[in-house]
Write a structure and sequence with these properties.
Blueprint: E1 29-30, H1 32-55, H2 58-77, E2 79-80, E3 95-100, E4 105-111, E5 122-124, H3 128-133, E6 141-144, E7 147-154
Parallel strand pairs: 1-2, 4-5
Antiparallel strand pairs: 3-4, 3-7, 6-7
Helix pairs in contact: 1-2
Length: 155
């Protein structure tokens, strides 16, 4: 069929159908810092959405509306976890240092999915490495990627 007879959406209309961001099926566990990040993101998005409304910027409206839906859902399901009560075993919120079998030492804090940034030293509690570490103690050896690692410190 010729495209001359097909009603294509105008440029701005395409943005109205942005798919929602996927939401994890895992419990939305957060640290106090993670909860503050969610609330800060929501405040920023509300401001951006207001500016987009004033400017009648349909693309920005669509993007901020989608992100507001995501972060509003994440805020409503956030489960604030208490700080670890001891350093005996790895738990949500613990900072763990491992020594890999190739000699590298790595330190991560185990946090919620939305606040995890492995390059900045935070791991999602549902990541394979974090799951291997949970409940373990200093001296335990765990599978970390393709090799093994020993837990050398828990804070």
């Amino acid at each position: 069929m010729s495209s001359a007879f097909v009603k294509e959406p105008d440029g701005g209309d395409v943005f109205e159908d942005l798919p929602d961001r996927p939401i994890s099926e895992h419990a939305n566990l957060v640290t106090a810092q993670g909860l503050a990040q969610i609330e800060g993101t929501l405040a920023r998005l509300h401001e951006e959405h207001g500016r987009a409304q004033v400017a009648a910027d349909r693309a920005a409206l669509a993007h901020t509306a989608r992100d507001l839906r995501y972060w509003t859902a994440r805020r409503s399901t956030a489960q604030l976890m208490p700080a670890p009560d001891s350093n005996d075993r790895v738990q949500f919120g613990s900072t763990v240092t491992i020594a890999r079998d190739d000699g590298r030492r790595q330190t991560w804090r185990i946090v919620g999915e939305d606040e995890a940034e492995p390059n900045e030293g935070t791991l999602s509690y549902v990541s394979p490495v974090a799951r291997a570490l949970m409940g373990k103690s200093v001296g335990d050896v765990v599978q970390a990627g393709t090799g093994e690692a020993e837990i050398v410190e828990i804070r």
